[in-house]
Write a structure and sequence with these properties.
Layout (H helix, E strand, L loop, with lengths): L9 H5 L1 H31 L7 H5 L2 H27 L19 H4 L11 H5 L1 H8 L1 H31 L7 H5 L2 H27 L23
Helix pairs in contact: 4-8, 4-10
Length: 231
């Protein structure tokens, strides 16, 4: 059945944000694979080495490190933002809680434990360790994905780095030595700084600027002082 506000089926429209980002993520990943493959083979040719197939490239350490280093920085950004916004506030930003609500908030406000409602998730109402785990489940999952992505980045980066060293007739580095290598931290920090800048800019610019109809923005006519209200 089509939604009355559009031609899309109601179920599709209800999940359209996730579906859209899923689709453009896959398109961008495919684009990265093809463009990275072409660039990699250009480097191979310049070094008088054999070109590789697309399948060989997307299963290589070079492709894995390029993907994983972006994933880990994105999940670190959101992990820190989620944690920071529990206790820290920004007057006038829709990305912040209201100033007086800083902190974890009582169970009554969070509808947890004995204050759970009929529609609350089961673990929110159970109490004990289950409610504690569920209370921090988003942080736990985001943190786990960040840790896994960082591990993949470091191992794949180590393999790709040593492959280059061997091509240059240099001795490979051990994994601990690679983790202390400036090349690893240069690649890591260039991603981190851009993520921190972007999320900080979002929190501050949304005090004064608007995007009509977006929950990430305040209503167009809201005061600059209005905090924690989305449009």
């Amino acid at each position: 059945m089509a939604d009355r506000k559009g031609v899309l089926p109601r179920g599709v429209r209800a999940s359209s944000l996730g579906l859209m980002f899923g689709a453009i993520f896959l398109a961008a990943l495919v684009g990265q694979a093809f463009s990275g493959w072409a660039a990699f083979n250009d480097e191979q040719a310049a070094s008088q080495l054999a070109k590789v197939s697309l399948g060989e490239y997307v299963t290589s350490a070079a492709f894995a490190v390029d993907v994983a280093e972006n994933w880990q920085s994105e999940y670190l950004q959101f992990l820190l933002y989620i944690l920071a916004t529990v206790w820290l506030v920004q007057r006038g930003s829709p990305e912040s809680k209201e100033l007086e609500k800083s902190g974890q908030e009582p169970d009554e406000d969070q509808r947890a434990g004995r204050f759970a409602t009929q529609g609350s998730p089961r673990w929110a109402a159970t109490g004990g360790w289950r409610t504690v785990v569920y209370s921090w489940s988003l942080v736990l999952v985001m943190g786990s994905i960040f840790a896994a992505s960082w591990l993949v980045q470091s191992v794949a980066g180590w393999a790709a780095f040593n492959e280059t060293r061997l091509q240059q007739l240099q001795d490979p580095l051990s994994y601990p030595a690679y983790l202390l290598n400036p090349e690893f931290w240069s690649r890591t920090m260039q991603n981190w700084q851009s993520e921190f800048l972007a999320v900080g800019s979002m929190a501050v610019l949304s005090i004064y600027l608007r995007a009509r109809g977006s929950p990430e923005s305040k209503p167009v006519g809201a005061s600059h002082e209005t905090t924690g209200v989305g449009g």
